[in-house]
Design brief:
three-stranded antiparallel β-sheet; 27% strand; globular; binds zinc ion; peptide deformylase activity
Length: 215
């Protein structure tokens, strides 16, 4: 529960962040804010400030570019993230990874739970761990519960690449990074991924680098 006395600092921090135009600075692994749990959003920002903050997250995600951004990645310990993926990928990648376009949306106080036992393992990366990617096996389908930016309740099943994005961003809000769940032997520079591991699925990478895939 937020009280007037602890509302002010967060709102003030966000106001200060928004005082500068353009994309916000993204903090990198090692910043404590990425490892702490976040505060549930409970009106700490008034509707106008929330709308400005969400817009700044959107601009920052586009500029990076990325397909998701969580508030702690700009130093704000609030349970809010944005996602959007135009999914400009070849057909074979779309089919293998379920990477379908995900329109822009705001996740307020999200949480997820697996639906079924199927897992999907693919390379993923993080704007707070620049330069690298690693294979993460995640539930292929999750039930997402959250609110949207207007406070309307959301309860839906998400599959494919959007399910991966939802899990990655929600994990940020629990102080987790994708590396906590990754096959560390798969860790590859962006250059190595582009050069060797651009296949739709990471089977060849698993053999060559020596890590296990689920199933
Ligand atoms: Zn991330």
């Amino acid at each position: 529960m937020a009280t007037p006395s602890d509302r002010a600092p967060l709102a003030e921090q966000v106001e200060q962040l928004l005082a500068t135009e353009g994309p916000l600075a993204i903090v990198a692994a090692g910043e404590p804010v990425l490892r702490r749990p976040t505060e549930r959003f409970d009106g700490q920002l008034d509707p106008a400030l929330l709308a400005r903050f969400v817009e700044a997250l959107r601009i920052t995600m586009h500029a990076a570019p990325g397909v998701g951004l969580a508030a702690p990645q700009v130093g704000v310990p609030l349970r809010i993230a944005v996602i959007e993926d135009p999914a400009p990928v070849p057909e074979e990648v779309r089919l293998a990874r379920g990477r379908v376009p995900q329109p822009f949306r705001v996740l307020v106080n999200p949480s997820y739970e697996p639906v079924g036992s199927a897992r999907a393992a693919f390379f993923e990366g993080c704007l707070s761990v620049p330069g690298y990617q690693a294979v993460v096996a995640r539930p292929a389908e999750v039930r997402l519960t959250c609110e949207d930016e207007q406070g309307h309740a959301v309860d839906e099943v998400v599959t494919g690449w959007p399910a991966r994005i939802v899990q990655h961003e929600t994990d940020h809000l629990d102080g987790m990074l994708y590396l906590d769940r990754a096959e560390l032997r798969s860790l590859s520079s962006n250059q190595a991924v582009a050069e060797y591991w651009a296949q739709p699925a990471p089977g060849e990478a698993a053999k060559a680098l020596g890590f296990r895939l689920p199933g």
